[in-house]
Specification:
About 35% of the residues lie in helices and about 20% in strands. The radius of gyration is 23 Å and the shape is globular. The longest helix is centred in the N-terminal third of the chain and has 18 residues. The strands form four sheets. Strands 15-12-14-13-17-18-16 form a seven-stranded antiparallel β-sheet, with helices on both faces. α1 runs antiparallel to α3 and α7 packs across α8. It has 14 helices and 18 strands. It is an alpha+beta fold and about 475 residues long. It has four domains: about 100 residues, Uridine Diphospho-n-acetylenolpyruvylglucosamine Reductase, domain 2 (2-Layer Sandwich); about 120 residues, Uridine Diphospho-n-acetylenolpyruvylglucosamine Reductase, domain 3 (2-Layer Sandwich); about 100 residues, Alpha-Beta Plaits, CATH 3.30.70; about 90 residues, Alpha-Beta Plaits (2-Layer Sandwich), CATH 3.30.70. The chain binds flavin-adenine dinucleotide. The site of flavin-adenine dinucleotide has 40 residues, from β3, α5, β10 and α10.
Amino acid sequence: MTGDAGHAHAGAVGRLTALLGPDSVLTDPDELDLHAWDALGQSRIHPGRPIVPVHPLCVCTPASTTEVQAVVDVANEARVPLVPYGGGSGLMGAAVSLTSGIVVDLRRMNAVLEIDTAAFTARVQAGMVLEALDSELQQSGVMLGHDPWTLPVATVGGAVSTNGLGYRGGKYGSVGSQVLGVEAVLPEGPVCRTRGVAKRSTGIDLNHLFIGGEGCFGILTEVTLRVFPVPEARSLHAVRFDSFARGFEAVLAFSAAGLRPILLDYGDETEDPEGSSILYLGFEGKAEVVAAEEGVALAACRDRGGVRLAPDKAQGFWRERHAAARRFAANRGERRKRNDTGVHQDWVHVALPASQVLAFRREALAVAAARNVRFRESGLWTGPELFSLRLSREGGEQARAELGDAVSALLRTVHRFGGSVEYCHGVGVKLAPLMSHEHGDNLELMRSVKRCLDPNGIMNPGKLGL
Ligand SMILES: Cc1cc2nc3c(=O)[nH]c(=O)nc-3n(C[C@H](O)[C@H](O)[C@H](O)COP(=O)(O)OP(=O)(O)OC[C@H]3O[C@@H](n4cnc5c(N)ncnc54)[C@H](O)[C@@H]3O)c2cc1C
């Protein structure tokens, strides 16, 4: 950093303190450390492509859209990067500070502004944690349609900015598909507001600058979401199949019949990829509709050899579905520690045409075998097109590099199967090197939009492959 730049940066912290007040501009090293990183695990980073976080200059906690604008103005004047920050639960390093700048922690902007129970919409501030939002909605007789593992931690802004997917996604879609309108502060300071209506045919949809935008095109301050009636009935089931393929056929059959489960989590029961698999399945809604749906789905399972397990298996699964996020929240400080267990793991979450899922799974098994990597588990989430797998490798840095190479090699085959390299966690820094493979010439188009909106290049630089 030149002396001039260092002076400008120190001046930026002073300006922010004067504008927002000292309580809203944090420079305590523990806060800087906590906000320099998100939930991207060390074991998922290729040692040959290290990601080196730096402490931000400060963490701002604005309480209003006007205060967010003030932060953006200061960042433009001082030419320092801005990193929007929600719950910090992103798995791809999208909220990691790569150059020292200003982290904008939105969590003080956590109010529900309006709930319209007749229109089934809610207008909320972007820093609201999803679980708190859902509990306010439930008091009004409606509920949130987005139910990720990280419901107790993730914020509305973070979920929309990664276009996340939750358990209920099979019925209600990704969180992005539930966004009706937004308010966002653009990279040069003006505010973009879109109308929160059910459907528009008035030109391109500017909401999509921010859905999956990872904070690269502006800072979301408000979101109008579609919300849903609290269901009258819920049914949950667990069914075992003697092979992954048999259960996959059952999922295909009831999906083709138009069923939209609120729970569809299917995967290998043990680490034997040729062994049995378990399907967790659930429906919600009017009691008679739920009864009809579960009847059709269970018949499809039975016809393909599925054996129903005791009801408490599925009940327990549903009850515990947010437990991993609560553990993450309780151990946030641990997440950047070195992995001393010697077992490196990585996850792949790809979208594929349903017709290609079994072929891609065979490819993954072949890649794992050829590269001496363990194929730990595989599965479907929310529908037959969304396929995940976990790979691992034991050993030192070399082993971690080999695991990273195997994952990259596998992800590069996804396009040959007509798929996309990630279906819900975003790109961040982890998948940025794959973006030209994913988007081809369209990546340059995205970069042009980015340059046009953010000529100073201050909005979350280094993310999304932009
Ligand atoms: C154990 C575990 C389980 C998970 N399960 C799921 C799951 O089931 N489904 C799922 O979709 N994801 C899951 N994730 C990933 C993560 O929880 C989601 O990506 C989540 O939506 C991120 O929200 P956040 O508030 O924590 O965002 P952050 O991690 O803080 O930020 C994510 C991105 O959004 C940007 N951002 C944040 N707020 C704003 C804003 N107001 N305006 C503009 N940009 C903003 C950040 O700059 C960053 O680019 C899981 C993570 C963990 C650790």
